[in-house]
Amino acid sequence: GAVVSQHPSWVICKSGTSVKIECRSLDFQATTMFWYRQFPKQSLMLMATSNEGSKATYEQGVEKDKFLINHASLTLSTLTVTSAHPEDSSFYICSAPRTGGGPQHFGDGTRLSIL
Amino acid sequence: ILNVEQSPQSLHVQEGDSTNFTCSFPSSNFYALHWYRWETAKSPEALFVMTLNGDEKKKGRISATLNTKEGYSYLYIKGSQPEDSATYLCAFSGDSWGKLQFGAGTQVVVTP
Predict the structure, then answer these.
(1) In this structure, how many other beta carbons lie within 10 angstroms of the beta carbon of residue B13?
(2) A42-95: per-residue pLDDT in tens?
(3) Angle formed at CA A64 by CA A44 and CA B32, multiple of 5 degrees
(4) Which of A35, A59, B43, B94 has the smallest set of CB atoms within 10 Å of its CB?
(5) How big, in percent rounded to 5, are the helix, strand and coil portions of chain B?
(6) Are residues B102 and A44, on separate chains, in Cβ contact within 8 Å?
(7) Which residue in the set A2, A32, A104 is minimally distant from B100, CB to CB?
């Protein structure tokens, strides 16, 4: 079964709305989670690293004031797309590694459409 | 190579045939090479995490090899079945274990 849960799976909203996406690790604690974005016909691109109890680290070109990340507990990270515009429409997906290395576990992703 | 590149972008395989495809990655600052299988409307499923040059891993009919010196990995599917149809992603860990740099994937379609 799934070890990382991501909600919602699909969001359609008006321009200017803020959208929150949740990523939960279900049977393990994740001090670090990762947020990726995928535009059509392109690869998954890392947006930011979410760190429990501290600030997220953002990849070059990703606006931290636009994409707010909160990792308030060992099992939950949230990504809020603030004042979303049509160009923010994309597929967003989170991942979390278990401690000690090994593969990352992914959520099912969220398809965001801004009208 | 600065990016992770996968080829071919897509391939069609007849059921029962074997196939393979490539992932090329930067050969410096290597931590690990990950392979994922991604079916539509599902989350990517981890297949292999490979860390050592010359590593070979196998999971059922799927296997992978790794050459860190020249920066490539092959994924093999033996005796393809329709349920093998998916997009296969490779991802490179360079700066740190957790941060993955993905290729665009190879879409495999297995027809009966």
Answers:
(1) 18
(2) 999 999 999 998 899 999 999 999 999 999 899 999 999 999 999 999 999 999
(3) 35
(4) A59
(5) 5, 55, 45
(6) yes
(7) A104
